[in-house]
Amino acid sequence: MKRKTNKLTAKKMDKRLRIINAAMNVFGEKGFHKTKIIDIARSARVADGTIYLYFHNKDDLFIAAFEELIEEKLQNLKKIIAAIDDKLERLLKFFSLHIEMFTQNPNIARFVTKELRQSSEFYLKYPTFRPLQEYINYLKKLCQDAIDASLIRSIDTEVLVIIMIGTLNFALFEWSLGNSNRSLEDIKEQAVNIIYRGLKKGPAPENTEDE
Amino acid sequence: MKRKTNKLTAKKMDKRLRIINAAMNVFGEKGFHKTKIIDIARSARVADGTIYLYFHNKDDLFIAAFEELIEEKLQNLKKIIAAIDDKLERLLKFFSLHIEMFTQNPNIARFVTKELRQSSEFYLKYPTFRPLQEYINYLKKLCQDAIDASLIRSIDTEVLVIIMIGTLNFALFEWSLGNSNRSLEDIKEQAVNIIYRGLKKGPAPENTEDE
Amino acid sequence: MKRKTNKLTAKKMDKRLRIINAAMNVFGEKGFHKTKIIDIARSARVADGTIYLYFHNKDDLFIAAFEELIEEKLQNLKKIIAAIDDKLERLLKFFSLHIEMFTQNPNIARFVTKELRQSSEFYLKYPTFRPLQEYINYLKKLCQDAIDASLIRSIDTEVLVIIMIGTLNFALFEWSLGNSNRSLEDIKEQAVNIIYRGLKKGPAPENTEDE
Amino acid sequence: MKRKTNKLTAKKMDKRLRIINAAMNVFGEKGFHKTKIIDIARSARVADGTIYLYFHNKDDLFIAAFEELIEEKLQNLKKIIAAIDDKLERLLKFFSLHIEMFTQNPNIARFVTKELRQSSEFYLKYPTFRPLQEYINYLKKLCQDAIDASLIRSIDTEVLVIIMIGTLNFALFEWSLGNSNRSLEDIKEQAVNIIYRGLKKGPAPENTEDE
DNA sequence: GATGAATGAGGTTTCATTCAT
DNA sequence: CATGAATGAAACCTCATTCAT
Fold first, then answer.
1. Distance (Å, rounded) from C-alpha C36 to C-alpha C146?
2. How many domains does chain A contain in total?
């Protein structure tokens, strides 16, 4: 039954996906405002009018592209992480996967790092637009699990999320602009090392000792 | 009265500064593309044509505003930090000052966090536009100094910069959107704690030991 | 049941008529330019492409709808009036019938009063589009008959047509917009009275006499 | 004083008027929807953007043009008619002047006859748009005055207005399309004759008597 | 015949920039 | 120096029309 209904829908889906993918690329490359609908249309090999058969307007397309990207990535992430038992490893894996996922191409990285900010104007226009919320919530839960399992110190998960997402975000952004002369892999390894040390249990560092 | 206080050069400086300040505010509030030149002109109480006597175009004004903001903040920072002897305290102070400085009003915070990304399009048009470079370099130096003084571990300063700037940036961004229910002060304290622990000298954490 | 009643030709006729009727209504309601082909298609419960099987284009549909409406109404009119002997009564009946016919619903009234003008652009594109010509000619003939029968004064029938059609048209237009607080019936009665007095035989009015 | 303030304004007014006049002509020629802003701009010898310095949008321009035309004509009318004592002559003069005024060129005639209808869509969007209301009210008053002076029968002025405006409107419309082979002057004379006879005091015509 | 997904030309409107005053 | 009226390029979106199924 599913196969039947999808026969006709296949092409439609195909076209919708082509538009979404084109949108992510072009938005990521040029930014929301410099992206013209016709750029996306050409990239998706459809007429510009066609885009309006699938999306109400440019804003709608942007939001859909963003949400579907995040949604898809989050599903990926969850599936892989669910297979890991250790709560701490899960957290580390999150770091690695995040970077892996968003570096398929620099446009995607730019899309999630740059446009995430750009799109703050959407927060006003579309108050329900919280594309990262679910993502962040998931990360919070991973942190809380690690804390509950006594694998890391009991710290404010909101702060931890800011450190982790902020670091990942900026690292990807710099990478997408070609600004860094370290490999992302290197950067990740070291960042994980530093942050993990900052989280592990044990006595707080004492300045007096050092002096 | 007005005529008296406004000496010729003062008047000119005054006008340029008024435009820059207006630009920072309006760009921060509305974002680059939604900001109209006439908005800035009105906010600075000049005619729109006048802006073109001081800046070549909208891009130029944006860049000038950004650079002058960063430049001014960096001078501030350096002056205050120069008065501190301890290399580690300097690093901590940097964190605090950064947040203090860019939270004078949310528009300024948005300007530096959101528009920094937005402006990646300027990297293409104006390859020399690296507004944060000096700022980042200074932070790198502070890190290196702390390492050289054996106050923190010998880590890659580039990575450290990414963690610190990324964290600060994201914390400010979330704050400017009113998304966080923690105070910035709280977040800063805890972030510093975590990152500092991650940096302090001593043996690496061992998972097996902890369990 | 539906399949049975819809014989092949009947079905076709049915569809064409359904489109024409839908067109009259939607054109009347929204005006030519605000009417979208898909509006008519939906109203006629056909696909939009289907309309192009029966009409060359939107203009063609508009003209066809208009002409068929007028044609149908004129046939009605002629049939009823043919049954009347008195040439004067025929003229009066024309007045009444015209109003009756075009007030079946306000959309139809708007269609014939408003779009008649709107469509003056068709006069350029389709010089043969003279939808009211036959109608007007018939009225002229009725007038001429009344004159020949010495029932009214011998006046220029063209002028009379302008008075009658102009009056009817404007009365219907105002009614269709809901602008008048008199009933159409009232207006008609009084208008007929005035115009008929203006037509009847006898000495011209003399101002001096009346005073 | 007035002269001074008008010095600068002169050019502005000139441009505004040029746009209004161009608008009346082009709207009259092509109709509202087929008229493109750039058509009006070219006709007024300004850039298309300039039009938006004087009018909010196309609708606004249309309404302004219509209202200013009617307003101007009505002032004319009132001034001339005020100089006439006889209440009946006033009514007759109204008829003549109306035709004279709106036949300066066919575009103007089309503008007032065709677009008056077209613009019924404006009644919905702009409920206060009643361009002819004042005009009609003035005609009603003229009628009432003639009735009060016992110069014509006591008839419903609303009906009379419908006859008069409807007739004038249709006559002008047909003339503007070049459809009539009578001169407007001829038509007017005869129409006035018929309508006046219909209005004069005296016994109603009796059909039976005539036969 | 019937469908409706796809097309793409076209128009209103905005706004950065210029330049006469 | 300062002004702000004028310019005109550019882009989102609509919708009549086509054509593969």
1. 45
2. 1
